[in-house]
């Protein structure tokens, strides 16, 4: 009950009929955090997309100005570099067929696989294991590349995958309650500008339909995205 009362008190501070500016929304999201831990600030973007059409399934990578997500565990698969080079670039794990065999055996203690193209025939056989978990390397995501060192550095610095769900929504972490408000605002602005640039040519009518942010377990706050 105490938890519910705290949430309801926070929710009472939000006008559900109002569209807040990004600055106002960030300030309010921080103020209405109800957790004892340093909560994340999450964004939900509702897009007017028909995800049954391949050209309207948005998916790719983005590096926001300020990264607040968890540290990404990177597995590098390549025989063009040494383990020392991989480690210096930030790789958590490095190998080739030996690591693929470990994955076949059930090992999945990583968040991203960055692979040289030559390893894809073997990895493709693990589609039923890696695919559902979003771990299959993909050239469009920059995770299948001849330059595995560059890709590793980018992901360790906060490069993130994004994709629309079945309903055309994109969810991402854009900050922490403890973070400076201007950093969170910068992340939101950058993300929205980026998503706007990815509008499929086949979309008719309004592209962005709704944008909300909230702290973890906090109330949702609508953003006036048309003013951006």
Helix- and strand-based class? alpha/beta
- Could you name the ranges where pLDDT drops below 50 across 5 or more consecutive residues? none
- Main β sheet profile: 4 strands, antiparallel
Terminal Cα separation, in Å? Answer: 39 Å
**H/E series:** HHEEEHEHEHHHEEHEE
The portion of residues assigned to helices is 25-40%
Question: What does this protein structure show overall?
Answer:
The protein is α/β, with parallel strands linked by helices and 228 residues long. It has 8 helices and 9 strands. It has helices spanning 2-11, 22-31, 83-89, 97-104, 120-124, 127-130, 148-156, 181-197, and strands spanning 40-47, 59-62, 74-77, 93-95, 112-115, 160-163, 169-176, 208-215, 221-222. The strands form 3 sheets. Strands 7-1-8-9 form a 4-stranded antiparallel β-sheet, covered by helices on one side. Strands 4-3-5 form a 3-stranded parallel β-sheet, sandwiched between helices. The two termini are 39 Å apart.
Keywords:
single chain, 3-stranded parallel sheet, 9 strands, 8 helices, alpha/beta, 228 residues
């Amino acid at each position: 009950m105490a938890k519910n009362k705290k949430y309801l008190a926070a929710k009472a501070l939000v006008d559900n009929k109002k569209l807040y500016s990004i600055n106002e929304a960030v300030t309010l999201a921080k103020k209405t955090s109800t957790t004892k831990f340093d909560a994340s600030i999450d964004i939900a973007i509702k897009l007017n997309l028909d995800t049954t059409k391949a050209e309207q399934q948005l998916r790719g990578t983005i590096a926001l100005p300020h990264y607040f997500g968890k540290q990404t565990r990177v597995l590098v698969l390549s025989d063009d570099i040494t383990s020392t080079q991989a480690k210096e670039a930030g790789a958590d794990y490095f190998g080739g067929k030996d690591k693929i065999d470990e994955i076949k055996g059930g090992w999945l203690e990583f968040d991203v696989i960055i692979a040289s193209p030559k390893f894809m025939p073997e990895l493709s056989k693990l589609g039923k294991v890696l695919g559902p978990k979003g771990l299959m390397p993909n050239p469009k995501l920059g995770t299948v590349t001849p330059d595995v060192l560059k890709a590793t550095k980018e992901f360790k610095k906060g490069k993130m995958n994004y994709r629309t769900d079945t309903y055309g929504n994109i969810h991402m972490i854009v900050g922490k309650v403890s973070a400076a408000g201007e950093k969170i605002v910068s992340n939101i602005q950058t993300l929205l500008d980026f998503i706007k640039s990815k509008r499929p040519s086949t979309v008719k009518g309004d592209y962005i339909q709704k944008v909300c942010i909230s702290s973890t377990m906090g109330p949702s706050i609508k953003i006036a995205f048309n003013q951006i």
